[in-house]
Predict the structure.
Amino acid sequence: MQQRLLQAVFFITTVLLFYSCGGILETSTIQISLNDKWQVTSENDSIQFITNIPNEVHSDLYKNRIMEHPFFGDNEKRTQWVAKKDWVYEKEFDVDSSFLLKENQELVFEGIDTYSEVSLNEKLILQTDNQFRQWKADVKSILKTANNKLKIMVLSPFEIENQKAKEYGFQPPSDSRIFTRKAAYVYGWDWGPRIITSGIWKPVKLIGWNGPRLKDVCIIQDSLTERKAYLTAKFEINSTKPDEITLFVYGNKQKLMTETGVQSIDVKLEIDYPDLWWPNGLGDQKLYKIDCSLIHNDFGVQTITKKIGLRTIELIQEKDSYGKSFYFKVNDIPVFMKGANYIPQQILGNEIDSNKYERLLNDVVESNMNMLRVWGGGIYEHDIFYDLCDEKGILVWQDFMFANGMYPADSSMLSNIQTEVEEQIKRLRNHPSVALFCGNNEIAEAWVNWGWKNKYSIDQQTKMTDDYYKIFHQLLPELVEVNSSNISYWPSSPQFGRGDKRSQFEGDSHYWGVWHDEEPFETYERKVPRFMSEFGFQSYPSLKTLSNWFDEKDLNYDSHILQNHQKHPKGNELIKKYMERDYVVPKNFSHFIYVNQLLQAEGIATGIEAHRRAKPYCMGSLYWQLNDCWPAISWSGIDYEGRWKALQYFVKKSFEPIILTLERNDNLL
């Protein structure tokens, strides 16, 4: 304790010394936000408005009363013109002369959706083609003190995608979206609208600095016992020339001379009698705050702070008499995963705040869950999502953003994917909640079981199979191993489709015989896999939620306006068929919603309890889906406005630590 106190005093004294020398304020890193007051113009100048960043064009258009809200009634159909246009973002800004004295001056875009051309003072500095990565440009030779003009032309994706399809030689499944590194669900899904988003969806800033730059720090857990945790802080440093620095982390310091370019430097540290991080329901979520600092005699202190949890987590796959196990072991304890599949909470991405994240994750905890699967057709979530999962003990099965399509693997695409995935792994790897990186959603199953192959020649099939292998069996696992070797990688969810007998005996399973194949809910009791990562049934949202988005005349089962929010082609038909098996179908619409939600709840609870009874053969039950991205008739347990459906109450009960559950066997219980 005394030693740790002395080390802390040393660090504080060192920092104060730099300040007292009078140089740090002039020479430290300067960040300038460029988020406010952008002028947005449509390609033909017919539409103009002012916005702040982050933004999304559809959202801004209705806020400026240029169009109605795309969620109301069937307005979605009348918003398709937005994605066909290019949108010009322009901003003028000044910078202080002290910024121009910096050795390094960088313009950073945290996220642009998606294709764009960026110019500064009429000079092209960037062309972007990936929603999921940062974009940076050296602007030292371009920036001036006053009247800097930043222009971003955000391009419609359609012509670009069509051109890429021509260059590929043919159109792979499922459509041209697979050529664009952009959230797949915005092109339309069987629970979501076709609202192809566009805009600058994350912050924009200028960064100026002198001397060596602390780019990133990764905290690696080397070993963990009751008495001690041995860790390595891996500093990533960029230096324009050899320079003397001191690295300081958790009471440990190391002096060294940097090399020119980017280098990785390790500093060892120890934590005595560590408190472990546990998933929800198994213990506390102890988080350690680790300040990692680079100290330079002339340029002051740069610090990156990491919050880490000390825990071990393994995906265990061992051969047994049935096939092969599939379960997670946390701190040497096999844990049954109780949870759901998570989709983006809002398709108009700039309309979600921290309170909505907090509310939804509190609902997850209240529902006795310990895992969410971040589905591969959405987005890599914002930092606040993972921070809250860390704090609340919710493990994250993290898909990479690939879903339901055969993606090309030419050199340009592979390079783009590599940058994206490296960036995301480095961002997420120190979160104790992140339990697994998964390559994609349902592509392996679709290629084998959905009839995709039959539409293509042998040569075309070979090309697509080779591309699939390059991405999901070569590039992605290698990136995970190099950048986060303590987190397991799984190529595709599921490993085998429901048409493959192996889906019950190894890997994870998406079981849609109930719903798509119209099998009864009792099938869940017979078709029990090793780990159920998707299964579900649809229901209407709360009538209160619907009332906020539809005229009263459209609040009925037969309304074609309301049915625009039902995106499954057989959705309403299947809801009615299942209802007729067990209930009298109500004629009153509010009663119909009530019975529909009860039907969904009883069906999914049947599945969850069958999975739990089968432990340790089955070690996970993640239903589809937790939430909605718009007011929809969908598989969710919590509707778009945050109201619990009956399903969520049943889930809470079925996921309690100890439950009494009955098993049907012929005519016996």
User: Anything to note?
Assistant: Residues 512 and 535 are 6 Å apart (CA to CA). Residues 1-27 have pLDDT under 50 and may be disordered. Residues 324-654 form a domain with the TIM Barrel fold (CATH 3.20.20.80). The longest helix spans residues 458-483.
